[in-house]
Structure prediction request, 445 residues.
Amino acid sequence: MALSQSVVSELLEAFRAGEGVDLIRESVRLVMQELIETEATQQIGAGRYERAETRVTDRNGSRARLVATQAGDVRLRIPKLRKGSFFPAILEPRRRIDQALYAVVMEAYVNGVSTRAVDDLVAALGIESGISKSEVSRICAGLDEQVEAFRSRPLHHTEFPYVFLDATYLHVRRTGQVTSMAVVVATGVTAIGGREVLGVDVGDSEDEVFWRGFLRTLKERGLAGVRLIISDQHTGLVAALGRVFQRVGHQRCRVHFARNLLALVPKSHKDMVAAVFRTIFAQPTAEAVAGTWDSVRDQLAATFPKIEPLMNDAKAEVLAFTAFPRAHWPKIWSTNPLERVNKEIKRRARVVGIFPTSPPSSASSALCWPTCTTNGKSPTAATSPKPPWPSSTPAVILEPSPQSEPATDTENPSKAHQAMGLCQSRTAVLEERADTLHRLRAMTK
Prediction:
């Protein structure tokens, strides 16, 4: 649309004067006012003071409207009609903020800026009228559609051999009471090492029904090629995995298991037991890991009898990672890769404190939004730009091998010698820990 001669003249005059005038703000005001006048002329059927057969009504003055834009507050005049009503399409009914500033407010909110701090942000942008926290909440309701599109997107574009599951809890005010609600997150790793957030959901608790519905939704959206699921040992989650992913291996998080193990040990012995337990995961082969597990179990059970049944029952699930390539072990024997997402959710939820409504809502959508993006990318491209996993071909991941030694050791003799030396040093540490256990047992007797 070409600007009228009068508007161009006003712009030139503003640029000539310049003193004490915000040129950008004045330019925005003139252009927006011209758009409003053009739309009003089209609806009336004739221009101002124009006699035409196409005219359907007449102007009847105008009303003032203050609009907050990225250039600052601008005062516009909206024409009134003798018959009918008129409201320009470039403005939102009952909203004094333009769409560009909407995007700024949304971006600030999902990046952890509180609703009260957003008022200071818009003031810094030149919007002197400010913005209330309730208005910020209404604006962020626009995030719901984007988050819902991300949560329901198809997953059949690739296979995910490794899937991580975990949950965190947030406070929500419901019917006058503050309750905790579970936010469950699923992330997947592709055959080439790319990470992607598969799904996010909010529920009352982590019971089997909720987990089963969440997992079935992932399968219905096209999740396939899963060989190993990494999670904690929550009863509802484990039961749901047995119903939905019957032929998929389950890796019990070694960090969560270590906490359960240390709960059976007196406080004065926790550091020693934790150090001995870590030697299990320092072994280079699957056979050595299994053998060290049995050795550590026997040594600890001699002093702490309750440890033996716990380690016997958990051995298969805690050591499930040994059936996969050795280079992947540090990434798949715990849920630590997913804890970063949970930490980001907690950080951004801290500025909210207690969410005012039960999800789904604008607050919960903004909360889930950190998991929908990675490094500033859009939700539909929530994959890591650089694979954080050891590089390997899809066949290596999809075909787990019991003999899990790295292939590079046979190609590089120096690395093989280094690995042997590391193994010997770790064996020495294990023997030292065993001697400590024997001395401890002698002292207790």
